[in-house]
Specification:
This protein is of the alpha+beta class and about 170 residues long. The protein has a single domain, classed as Rossmann fold. It is built from six helices and six strands, in the order ααααβαβββαββ. The protein has a four-stranded mixed beta sheet. Strands 3-4 form a two-stranded antiparallel ribbon. Helix 2 packs antiparallel against helix 4. The longest helix has 14 residues.
Amino acid sequence: MAGASQATISFITNSGHRIYFDDFVRQLDQCFGDGDFFENQTNPLKVQKFLDSALNFPEETFDGALVWDTLQFLVAPLLTTVVAHLHRVMRPGGYLLAFFSAEERANTIQTYSYRISDHRTIALAAREQRPPAQFFNNRSLEKLFQDFESVKFFLTRDHLREIIVRR
């Protein structure tokens, strides 16, 4: 959901899977970028346009979702809606991978482009600094993904919370 690299596409397709990708952050900027980015995320018309363009899939379409670091730029009501949509479009037993900044007091956080190098390595390339919508701790993430079967947390050396969620 944050674009794709050739390395990631090759890794996934060489493993026998199909892939669909979209640049979720670009979609956010297109739908909410005119004016106050966070305030626009509360506008019902803009929210519907965003959901129609980014998450308009039939139920239980995907076995997994590489969400990367995109969810941390959504205000609370839209974030809850997006996570509910992700739950709906994922098949039972499917996995979701997401990253959240662990920097508690940062005004802006680094965004990354992610590349799966091999079955043990994800390479990060810095993209840009963006203000987060809110700070996420483990408890808030557990609550956010409460409708999923399980949530596992890991802290990376890059000060990111890696979240693996099972539907």
